[in-house]
Specification:
By secondary structure, the protein is α/β, with parallel strands linked by helices. The protein contains 4 helices and 8 strands, in the order E-H-E-E-E-E-H-E-H-E-H-E.
């Protein structure tokens, strides 16, 4: 597949807390970095996303007495998985992995900073209504196709891809540039959604600049 000036690479949450040794580590999470570096030169446009939670965020199990990480609870906007405290604003865990080097990226989009609502997607908070503004930015740049890489495949990458399709972009996930949590069948669930919505899965080796 050939990239064009109307394509963007969105690199999702390659942060210390999602990599080995982090508070919410994704198995082999740092392995995505070399793949991302390999494909990045094919893109004129690159966006980084960064999970950026305040202390006591509503998605943290620690904010709900008696609750444990990975349980689900009902919040005002629907069901929410509770997570270990992670990517707290200004913390080492919230920093991008030190090996990630993409100085050509045009913007860094921070998400999940509203205390009472989580934000998996780069495009919308988890109420599925509140926009991050990324869609409008990409339209202003005349982007039509979005390639996604990063962490985690079955949460923030996947939700971003589904929202990209919903907004009228073509979404392509570089599968070998992602790693998954796979919590209680989350990979199977998100891939069923990909099939219904038209999200494309491909390997980075099939990408030509």
């Amino acid at each position: 597949m050939q990239t064009t000036a109307q394509d963007v690479l969105v690199v999702v949450d390659v942060q210390n807390d999602f990599c080995p040794g982090g508070a919410l580590a994704v198995a082999d999470g740092d392995a995505v970095i070399d793949v991302i570096h390999r494909v990045a030169p094919a893109f004129d446009h690159i966006v980084l996303t960064q999970d950026w939670h305040p202390v006591g965020h509503s998605s943290f199990a620690s904010a709900h007495p008696g609750r444990r990480p990975f349980e689900q609870i009902e919040l005002s906007y629907g069901m929410q998985t509770l997570w270990p405290d992670h990517c707290v604003q200004g913390s080492k865990g919230a920093e991008f992995h030190s090996a990630l080097h993409l100085p050509q990226a045009q913007i860094i989009l921070r998400k999940g900073f509203s205390p009472q609502i989580d934000s998996y997607s780069a495009f919308f908070e988890n109420d599925r209504v509140t926009s991050t503004g990324l869609g409008d930015y990409l339209r202003d740049q005349c982007i039509t196709r979005i390639f996604l890489a990063g962490l985690a495949y079955d949460y923030c990458v996947g939700f971003s891809a589904l929202d990209a399709q919903r907004l009228g972009f073509e979404a392509v996930i570089l599968r070998d540039a992602c790693r998954a949590i796979d919590l209680d069948g989350s990979v199977a669930r998100i891939e069923a959604e990909f099939e219904k919505s038209g999200v494309v899965l491909m390997d980075s080796a099939d990408l030509a600049g």
